[in-house]
Amino acid sequence: MGTENKDGYWKANISLLLKLLVIWFVVSFGAGILFVDFLNQFEVLGVKLGFWFAQQGSIYVFVGLIFYYTRRMRKIDEEHGVED
């Protein structure tokens, strides 16, 4: 793998990680702490939405982010010729 290819690979990798970390932060800190009062105006299955996000929803989002990360990294690996 050439230097240009390595730089492009790591740039794509870090860019993806930063985007997913921002989503993780917004969901966990934002929905669970900052916006909890606003979200508590709504209910999901009889539970206030802010509480639900703090206890359950953020976990579902995190698991979804893991699956998205693995799928996207597989494509990035293929694009840069470093797949297994």
Describe the structure.
The protein has one domain (3-79). Strands 1-2 form a two-stranded antiparallel ribbon. Strand 1 (43-44) and strand 2 form a beta hairpin. The chain is mainly α and 84 residues long. It has helices spanning 3-34, 36-39, 49-79, and strands at 43-44, 47-48. It starts with a helix and ends in a 5-residue tail after the last helix. The model has no long low-confidence stretch (mean pLDDT 89). 80% of the residues lie in helices and 5% in strands.
Kindly give the count of domains.
1
Number of helices in the DSSP assignment: 3
Structural class: mainly alpha
Portion in helices: over 70%
Total number of strands: 2
What's the arrangement of strands in the largest beta sheet? 1-2
Summarize the main sheet.
2 strands, antiparallel
Unreliable segments (pLDDT under 50, ≥5 consecutive)? Answer: none
Q: Summarize the helix and strand pattern as letters.
A: HHEEH
How would you sum up the global shape? elongated
What is the radius of gyration?
A: 17 Å
Percent of residues in beta strands? under 5%
Mean pLDDT: 89
- C-alpha end-to-end distance: 14 Å
Q: Which secondary structure elements does this structure contain, and how are they paired or packed?
A:
Elements: H1 3-34, H2 36-39, E1 43-44, E2 47-48, H3 49-79
Antiparallel strand pairs: 1-2
Helix pairs in contact: 1-3
In short:
With 84 residues, the chain is mainly α. The protein is 80% helix and 5% strand. It contains three helices and two strands.
Question: Which characteristics define this entry?
Answer:
84 residues; two-stranded antiparallel sheet; 3 helices; mainly alpha
